[in-house]
Amino acid sequence: MRTAVYSTHKFERDFLIRANDNKHDLLFLETRLTRSSTPLAQGCDAACVFAGDDANGEVLEQLHALGVRFLALRSAGFNHVDISRAQELGIAVARVPAYSPYAVAEHTVALMLALNRKLIRAHNRVMELNFSLDGLVGFDMNGKTVGIVGTGKIGEVVAKILHGFGCRLLAFDQAANQQLVDKYDVRFVDMRELCAESDIITLHVPLSESTRYIIDANAIAQMKPGVMLINTSRGGLVHTKAVIDALKSRRIGSFGMDVYEEEEGLFFEDHSDDILQDDTIARLMTFKNVLITSHQAFLTQTAITNIADTTVFNLDCFEQEVRSGNELVLPRQSQILNGSATRTLRHLCKGRKLQLTDRHY
Ligand code: NAD
After folding, report:
1. Which of 102, 174, 234 to mutate to test the pocket of ligand 1 (most atoms within 8 A of CB)?
2. Per-residue CA distances from 302 to 100, 102, 162 (Å)
3. Share of the chain above pLDDT 70, in %
């Protein structure tokens, strides 16, 4: 199946080629999917997109007019895709629901530790032969209260790691996870209590209408002065200007961000020869107690291998007209699995780590 792979990065290309094993005709494109780059999918049956691509309604209409009938997401999050428009147009959509919650959780804790122990500042000082420790005082993680907002796959691993550090854990989620209560003494509370009691707050809910700006001026006003805020989920969870005000007044003591609400067209790309146009991120970059990474929390070999394998599996399943279990929008002509289709799926799973499980039915 000819597939336009938008936003192909150097770090993932070889993984995709290996997973594909010459099955599909992959057209690697460095450019992002936007209104102006849709013509590049001419002659393709599928488009494969990354978290920074913009599959809005208009873009999907253009892809549909070109004959694209399948959108394979190389991400778990799908807030960059107009799902209802895809449904109306009859473009099937599948994602990679989980590739390594450990990758994202471990990066989350890396941001916490780096901010707390001021590692970037310390390293820069040492490089200048300044071996003074003044201004580098951190705190023991042991005994601190951490509020985890969203205890799904990633939030759960964060809880496990921080339990090992001896942190007291609070959580907010629409559905309490009893396992976390039993194993790690997590206490499920409402957002108000989580904000009021936490020394560190870390965000792991998806971006949706109900979670957009879950951290706004109001939520910040309820937080402990000097709180550490970490966002490795989606930029839109945080009202960035409210966070800047709180950093200026020191109500927020430090901020670690791997995602940014205006990251489209900025993150994942080399802009080192450009003039930075975004005044908000420019202001964030001036704080010594803000640590920014460019949406790299997922970036481990395990995660990239899993993303590539599942993406090719999703392409296989669409081509063979069988359910992958990863669909957000089913193909119009979706085949109900019968004996022969089940055999096809078993064949597709063969030789991969992917297992044929109940979710495929
Ligand atoms: P998940 O679906 O396993 O967990 C999400 C949790 O959020 C669930 O427990 C759900 O009940 C809860 N939730 C959803 N809406 C809620 C609401 N309105 N109020 C309270 N709780 C709500 O997802 P996951 O795999 O843990 O991933 C979480 C997020 O991490 C993704 O949506 C994505 O945005 C982000 N992510 C970031 C990166 C990165 O590289 N930075 C990589 C992967 C995922």
Report:
1. 174
2. 7, 9, 22
3. 92
